[in-house]
Amino acid sequence: MRVTPQGLYCIPGDFFIDPARPVPMAVITHGHSDHARPDHGRVLASAETLAVMRIRMGADRAGRQQQVVAMGEVVTHNGVQIRLVPAGHVLGSCQVVLDWQGSRIVISGDYKRRRDPTCALFEPVPCDVFVTEATFGLPVFRHPDAGAEIGRLLESLRLFPERTHLVGAYALGKAQRVIALLREAGWDRPIYLHGALLALCELYESLGVKLGPLAPVPVPAKRGGGGLLAGEVVLAPPSAEATAWVRRLAEPVICAASGWMRVRQRAKAKGVELPLIISDHADWDELLDTVAEVQAPEVWVTHGRDDALVHALALRGIRGRALHLLGRGDEEEDQAPAEVVAEATA
Amino acid sequence: MSLPAFASLLERLAFTPGRLAKLALLRHWFETQPDPDRGIGLAALTGELVFRAAKPGMVRELVAARTDPVLFGLSYDYVGDLAETVALIWPARHGVNTPPPGLAEVVAAMGSTPKAALPDLLAGWLDALDANGRLALIKLVTGGLRVGVSARLAKTALAEWAGEDVAEVEEVWHGLTPPYLDLFAWLTEQGPRPSSEDRPVFRPLMLAHPLEEPDFPSIGPETHRAEWKWDGIRVQLSATPGGRALWSRGAEEISGGFPEIVAAMDFHAVLDGELLVMRDGEVAPFADLQQRLNRKVVTLKMQATHPVGVRLYDILFDGAEDLRALPFDARRARLEAWFARTQPARMDLSELIPFASMAELEAVRAGAREAAIEGLMLKRADSEYAAGRQKGKWWKWKRAPLGVDAVLMYAQRGHGKRSSFYSDFTFGLWRPDGQGGQELVPVGKAYSGYTDQELLWIDRWIRNNTTARFGPVREVEKTLVIEVIFDAAQRSGRHKSGVALRFPRIARLRTDKPAEEADQLATLEAMIVGEEAAD
Predict the structure, then answer these.
(1) Are residues B412 and B364 in the same domain?
(2) Is B422 a domain residue?
(3) Cross-referenced InterPro entries, in alphabetical order (chain A) (predicted)?
(4) In whole angstroms, what is the distance from residue A64 CA to residue A25 CA?
(5) Which residue range is the domain that position B289 belongs to?
């Protein structure tokens, strides 16, 4: 394996994992835009990830040759055995397990260990080298139970029935997880969606993830009109609350579902009134527990707080290495300003 | 279970910008919490609970013994707040199954535990709580909740919750101590109205309406009395056989910050007046008084360099005698008699300004040049002293504001209802850049004065003319001229321009005016009172 400007490169296999630029052959862990880029030659990924890619970038740009790899199926390429294993991050997200000449490397992509009603649970695979993220690689990040966070949202709905609750959530994964958690908690009213979330929610439904009644946020009867959807839950991409789109809602309580909401200053800087700590990334304990479970003597950290994680691994006698992958960040922070999206779809 | 509940309340209050939403959260707290927890929470929010023994250093030592120093350092660096870092990083102890402490339990134990045993006690509680609970506990015991709940807001919530008049709550409030069992008993109709006899209590203030042109004909020398409106802070002095207290306009007790005033209250009376920095009888600008505000204690040096006094304008109680039902003229006579008899140190009387007509008053108002004068107060001669803003009884008539045409430089999104609007504006004026050209220097920030229509227009203009972004702030093209008005301009070492504005707000958008024709900084500097203008 080698780190190149395009991303992680498997030398004997001659392919990339989640490359940042177009390459002849790529294995893609999941559909977030900092992992799945357009215009590769041959793309190996789960069926769900390929479906997401086709929706986000168009069928013609999701890879000239799109090859579905089923979970557990082994594809051998140039002597390297490629296998996909669930990563628990979003629907279709996988770890890439590579076996070559008796040694094994696992590239986990992004992952979490918590139960998520919208995707399969992470499966630890023992290996020689484990490649991990460290988005929340600081011991201050210990995500609380997501169900309890949804409970706080429901309590706020009871306390402020005259206001809309606007939940900022990333369009792929987080939005659907929040919806599914709301359904589990008994919220059976229609959930209203910003235009930027509609297509992916439909895709989840078509792939068998039940989300209950969903509806687009209506357009106000007259231009500049407001006061819509009092007492309802509306989901929108993060920072949609900063756009003119939001003015149609009834005095919205601005909520945000993100692991970053753990730190008050982050939540305050975003003007969030009800922070919901719901993350699709491993928290500090999950990172350390996972490294222990896969028993790898060597751990590579792709992005995030590699300094803290590498230090903590050293305390446990594990060799850690920071890869500083280019173009990899948290997908929730890294996106284009939502108002462009919002104003285009409004 | 109550500390986690209190932690939830704190968390929501900390993130809630709107007053109405804060009131709803507080009402919910009073409604759902049992005694004594609801009263203890109330006391904590209003700053009535103070523990001296637990210091941030103690918390820091506790966490240092439980975490790796490098990881703690990285975390503290990231989070930026010690209490929050500790709350988040505190390692869970497996096998702990003690329930989280109750609010009352914490308060009782903090008062009775010897200092040497405190660290263990605190650590045991931290083990039993989740991150939010730990943060609430640390902030509670080390002081520093800072959730934006004033005493006034808490009392308003109490009154709304109980369907009682907030003035009634104020009247009984200051004789009470946490956890306010007698207060809650009264508000839930389980007990009598608590007596506030003999203790210094805050009496709700009478407030004034701004005077507008249509009201002019109703003002006359037969029916009204005029006084200067001084630019200090409104205070109530309350001295009874049971004690002395100095209250702010918002019913916060500020005795600690002004010990020399409290020392001078060697009488039994309740008085209404303006707190001012005064040097040899001359009132200093508000900026001087600002140095003394928001301090729990004040150094002797500060007392010497920024001496304060009170200009008295009303008397509510003379001894135990309630004068509030008397008309203004009668109260004024009582005030003058009381003052002549008592001759209190550090106090003087607000002078009555004689006038024969409204026209004369307008001239007096226009002629006032002193920085510490905000304008005039007009009070009906027959008005009793009634709580709150009584239409047509007291008027405030501010001096005509000063104004400049400034250039919009930066804009920031507002909070709450305004979170989708760029509603806070930083504006600047021109000055020579030392190289033969002109540069803009920021002189102030304004977030009011515009109509809803104007806000919509500016918001769109800002989005279309952004040149750079810094978090929630946008820098814009330096082409939009706005007319900014303000009550006074003062020297300031803390501002890049050297000038600070009092109450700046937006009067008008000057889309007709090219930016290069906006005002010079020198124009503003000439408006600073207390310095001779160049002409």
Answers:
(1) no
(2) yes
(3) MBL (IPR050698), Xnuc_lig_assoc (IPR026360)
(4) 10
(5) 206-398
Q: How far is B232 from chain A (nearest CA, A)?
A: 33
Which domain-ending residue is among B108, B142, B176?
A: B142
Q: Which two tokens stand for residue A55?
A: 């929706």
Task: Give a yes or no: residue B199 inside a domain.
Answer: no
| Strands ordered across the beta sheet of A253-257 | A214-216, A191-193, A233-236, A165-168, A253-257, A274-276
Which CATH number characterizes residue B339's domain? 3.30.470.30
B511 with B466, same domain: the answer is yes
Please measure the distance between the N-terminal and C-terminal CA atoms of chain B and give it in whole angstroms. 70
B85/A244 Cβ within 8 A: no
What CA–CA distance (Å, rounded) separates A97 from A83? 5
CA nearest neighbour of B226 among B133, B353, B117: B353
Residues of B in contact with A141 (CB under 8 A): 88
Which domains are assigned to chain A? 2-140+280-330 (3.60.15.10), 146-276 (3.40.50)
Which residue among B155, B229, B379, B393 is the active-site one? B229
3-state secondary structure of B279: strand
Q: Which amino acid is at B449?
A: G
Q: From chain A, pick out residues whose CB is under 8 angstroms from the CB of B422.
A: none
Residue where one domain finishes, among candidates B377, B398, B419: B398
Nearest-angstrom CA–CA distance, B514 and B509: 12
A308:B71 CB<8 A: yes
**Whether residue B461 sits in one domain with residue B441:** yes
- Domain-embedded: residue B63: yes
pLDDT of B171: 79
Residue A311: its H or E element? helix A306-315
Report how far residue A232's alpha carbon sits from residue A190's, in angstroms, rounded to the nearest whole number. Answer: 8
Q: B441 and B370: one domain?
A: no
Q: Is the pTM of this model over 0.90?
A: no
B311: alpha, beta or left? (left if phi > 0; alpha if psi -120 to 50):
beta
What is the residue whose two structure tokens read 């893609």?
Answer: A28
pLDDT at residue number A334: 37
- Same domain as B339, residue B279: yes
Contact A224 B456 (CB under 8 A): yes
Q: What is the ipTM of this complex?
A: 0.89
Asked if pLDDT for residue B438 goes beyond 70, the answer is yes
Whether A138 and chain B come into contact, CB under 8 Å, resolves to yes
Q: Note whether B250 and B367 are same-domain residues.
A: yes
Q: What is the pLDDT of residue B390?
A: 79
Question: Model confidence over B324-369: pLDDT tens digits?
Answer: 999 999 999 999 999 999 999 999 999 999 999 999 998 888 887 6
Q: Are A291 and A137 in contact (CB under 8 A)?
A: no
Q: Which residues pair with B234 in a beta bridge?
A: B274
B231 domain residue, yes or no: yes
**To the nearest whole angstrom, how far is the Cα of A127 from the nearest Cα of chain B?**
27
Same structural domain, B8 and B86? yes
- Position B522 scores a pLDDT of 92
pLDDT value of position B416: 63
**Same structural domain for residues B350 and B406?**
no
Condensed to tens digits (0 to 9), the pLDDT of residues A195-245 reads 999 999 999 999 999 999 999 999 988 877 788 999 999 999 987 888 889
Q: Is the peptide bond before B4 cis (omega within 30 degrees of 0)?
A: no
**Whether B67 contacts chain A with CB within 8 A:** yes
Amino acid at A260: W
CATH number of the domain bearing residue B506:
2.40.50.140
Contacts of B71 in chain A (CB under 8 A): 138-139, 308, 311-312
In terms of Cα–Cα distance, which of A265, A259, A302, A255 is closest to A284?
A259
Phi, psi dihedral angles at A184 (to 5 degrees) = -60, -30
> Within 13 Å, how many C-alpha atoms sit on residue B347's CB side?
28
CATH code for position B44:
1.10.3260.10
Q: Is the Cβ of B419 closer than 8 Å to some Cβ of chain A?
A: yes
How many structural domains is chain B composed of? 3
Distance CA A255, CA A278 (A): 11
